[in-house]
Amino acid sequence: MIKILDLNLWRYNDFENRLKNFLKVIKIKNPDVVFLQEVQIDTSISFFSQVEIIKKKLDKKLGYRYTLHSTISLKDHQSGKKLKIPIQHGMAILSKHPILNSFEYYLQKNTSELEPRSILCFDLEINNEIHKFANIHFANNEKLAKVQLKEFLNFLVKRKEKRILVGDFNMFKLSNYFKKNKNSLFSEYNLSNDFKKYISYKKDSGTLDYILLPKKYYFNELVCLEEYLSDHNGLYIEIKNLT
Questions:
Q1: Fewer Cβ atoms within 10 Å of its own Cβ: the N or the C terminal residue of the chain?
Q2: Helix/strand/coil percent split, the chain, to 5
Q3: Is this model's pTM higher than 0.85 or not?
Q4: Beta partners for residue 106, in sequence order
Q5: Is 86 exposed, middle or buried, given 0-12, 13-18 or 19+ CB atoms closer than 10 A?
C-alpha cells in the first residue's frame, strides 16, 4: 500500500498557523509521499524552501529524508503588489523513500497565461518496487487546463509509461470531462472523484484537486481533510497495486 498526502500549500498566506496543523496531519496520517503545489522560496521570510521548513520541523523519527523542490517561475508581483525581491514559485515533494529519478516537463505556454506551468515527474522506490508519479498544477482556467492535461497524457503515451498524477488540476468539471472521454487517453486511468465524491475548494463549493490513477493500481481509501491547511482542502489517499 502507498499512502499519499496532497496539498496546494497556498504560498506563505498565514503559514505559521497552517504549518502547525499540517505537521500534525503528517504525523497522524504518516504518508509515504507528500505532494505540494504553490511552494515558495521567499528570501524576505526564509532562505529555505517551504518544503525544507516543513521537513526541518518534523520529528526525524518519522523518516522524511528526501525533498525535491522545483521553481517554475520567478514572481516579481504577488497579490497585485510589486515585490522588492522576486519570489521563487513552484512545486515540491517530501518523501520517506529514495527518489530514483526526476525531471520537469514544461507545458506549452498559452499567450493568455501570465506564468509558465510545468509538471514535476519523479520515481520512488517503495517496498522494493519502482512507482512513477507526477505533481500537477495546471493553468487557472478550465479550458487551458484541459489542453494541458491532454498534452501531458500524450507525452506519457510517447514515453510508453503511465504515472500516478496528483495535484491541483484547476478543473471543477474534471469528472464530467473524464466520463465524456473515457474511451480516449483516459481509458487507462481511474479518477479519485469517481471513487469518492468530495469538495476540495470550499470557496466555490467545488473540487480542483484530484488523483488520476493508472489501472494497475486501485483506490483503497480517500479522505478530504477538514483541518485548516490551506485555501484548498488537503487529500489523503491510500492506493494498492493490483500486481
A1: C
A2: 25, 40, 35
A3: yes
A4: 118
A5: middle
Report the alpha-carbon distance of residue 223 to residue 226 in Å, rounded: 9
| Side chain identity, residue 183 | N
Query: Could you read off the pLDDT of 121-140 as tens digits, one per residue?
Result: 999 999 999 999 999 999 99
Q: 219-240 as b/e, with b when 16 or more CB fall inside 10 Å?
A: beebebbeeebbbbbbbbbbbe
Which of 194-198's residues contact partners 24+ apart within 8 Å by CB, and which partners?
A: 195/219, 195/222, 196/222, 198/222, 198/224, 198/233, 198/235
Nearest one of 136, 70, 81, 132 to 104, comparing CA atoms: 70
**Runs of H (alpha helix) within 58-163:** 142-159
Residues 67-89: what's their mean pLDDT? 86
Half-sphere exposure in the Cβ direction for 53 (13 Å, CA): 21
Which residue from 65, 6, 4 is spatially nearest to 229, judged by alpha carbons? 6
**Residue 199 vs residues 3, 25, 100: alpha-carbon distances, Å:** 20, 18, 33
Roughly what angle, to the nearest 10 degrees, separates helices 15-29 and 50-57?
Answer: 60
Query: Over the stretch 38-53, which tens digit does the pLDDT of each residue have?
Result: 999 999 999 999 999 9
Question: Following DSSP, what letter does each residue of 57-87 receive, concatenated?
Answer: HS-GGG---EEEEEEEEEEEEETTEEEEEEE
How far CA 174 is from CA of 35, 238, 239, in Å, comes to 20, 21, 20
